[in-house]
Amino acid sequence: MSVAVPSPFPPILEYDKGRADLPLVVIPVSIPSMTTLLRERLEVFTGLARVRLHTDWTDDENVLASRMAGATVVMSTGFRAPASLLERIAPGVRCITFCGTGAVSFIDLDAARRLGITICNAVHYGDNAVAEHAIALMFEHTHRVGELNARTHQGGWPGADITELSGRTLGIIGFGGIGRRVARLAHGIGLRLLVWDRHPDAAALAALNAESAATMDEVFSRADIVSLHLALNDATRGIIGPAQLDLMRPGTLLVNTARAELIEPGAMLRRLSRGDIAAAIDVTAPEPLPDDDPLRTLPNLILTPHVAWRSDRALAALVEQNVRSAVEFLKGGAYNVIV
Predict the structure, then answer these.
(1) How is domain 4-125+312-330 classified at the architecture level of CATH?
(2) Do residues 282 and 308 make contact, with C-beta atoms less than 8 angstroms apart?
(3) How far apart are CA 102 and CA 129, in angstroms?
(4) How confident is the model at residue 304 (pLDDT cuts 50, 70, 90)?
(5) Do the strands 211-212 and 118-120 form a parallel or antiparallel pair, or are they unpaired?
(6) What is the topology classification, in CATH, of domain 127-303?
């Protein structure tokens, strides 16, 4: 399915268009907030490269391939690049800078490696934004602000009981930048912390009075809320399956602002369908989530459309890193290279 999103900007913005002697940098799709930020930063390419910025959004592979024709560097704002697309743009495109940390979910890294395309990502740009969103999902589950707001606007005076987060046990799976930020915010709220990480940092855990779990299963069996903060890679894909989800006690909440692929396909739907636990997620597989996907029918699931990373500060940091990666590549250097 092709998704096209209009833009308030001219369809194409070009810089140093007449400098055919310079390599071409293409941003084949963009969203308005990123377009605004990109326009403020593209002057750094003056004398180094021509830039062509497409200000609308499409996921049509033919359109994307056409737009990237002739480019040396592509700045990705989140389109998917399977092997079929990479093969069409190679050997012209030599570098793709990705607008996030989880490039593996959007770009076929093995194909990029085979084709000799350098891939750069961004790191820690949205740790706080994603952490705040994870906490917001927890609050929506316990305080139901969004639900009650919608019901009250519809009419009447819909009274409802709410519950508090303070005093509950938050289990954190993965203690990197985002996991640690979630822990700090949760500690301030008064949640007890139970953390599982492959390489536990004793000092960081002690600073937050957090308990280290010996196994991931321990977190699923003991926590009132389980929040996922693992990076997606070959070792973590499908790391959570029915065995872990079955350990969750009735009333437990599963929060996922990381990657849907951390959970074995179908396992969360089957567990939620039993009705005794809940989930709040910002990520799905696939994305966009089809309108007829059964996840949309579950009353015990809170869904947001992968927006946790899209805060004003996170977007600014993301654009800064993407631009720097492209500039460094054109100068013969390297920044945030993962392939």
Answers:
(1) 3-Layer(aba) Sandwich (3.40)
(2) yes
(3) 15
(4) very high
(5) unpaired
(6) Rossmann fold (3.40.50)
Are 335 and 73 in contact, with CB atoms under 8 Å apart? no
At 93-104, the pLDDT tens digits run 999 999 998 899
Q: What percentage of the chain carries pLDDT values higher than 70?
A: 98
Residues 6 or more apart from 149 whose CB is under 8 A from it?
A: none
**Contact of 83 with 112, CB cutoff 8 Å:** no
Q: Identify the pLDDT of residue 2.
A: 47
Residue 1, pLDDT above cutoff 50: no
Burial of 116 (0-12, 13-18, 19+ CB in 10 A): exposed
Beta strands in 180-323 (DSSP E): 192-196, 211-212, 225-228, 253-256, 278-281, 301-303
Alpha carbons 82 and 239: distance in angstroms, whole number: 23
pLDDT, average across residues 22-45: 96
Alpha helices (H) along 255-311: 267-272
Instruction: Please give the Cα distance from 76 to 90 (Å, whole number).
Output: 15
Instruction: For residues 248 and 267, give the distance between their C-alpha atoms in angstroms, rounded to a whole number.
Output: 13
Query: Is 4 a residue whose pLDDT tops 60?
Result: no
pLDDT in tens, 231-270: 999 999 999 999 999 999 999 999 999 999 999 999 999 9
Residue labelled with tokens 């500039």? 327
CA 56 to CA 10: how far, in whole Å? 9
- The residues of the chain that CATH labels 3.40.50.720 are 4-125+312-330, 127-303
Does this model's pTM top 0.90? My answer is yes
Give strand pairing partners of 280: 255, 302
Q: Is 195 exposed, middle or buried (0-12, 13-18, 19+ CB in 10 A)?
A: buried
Task: Please answer whether residues 212 and 205 qualify as being in contact, where contact means their C-beta atoms are separated by less than 8 angstroms.
Answer: yes
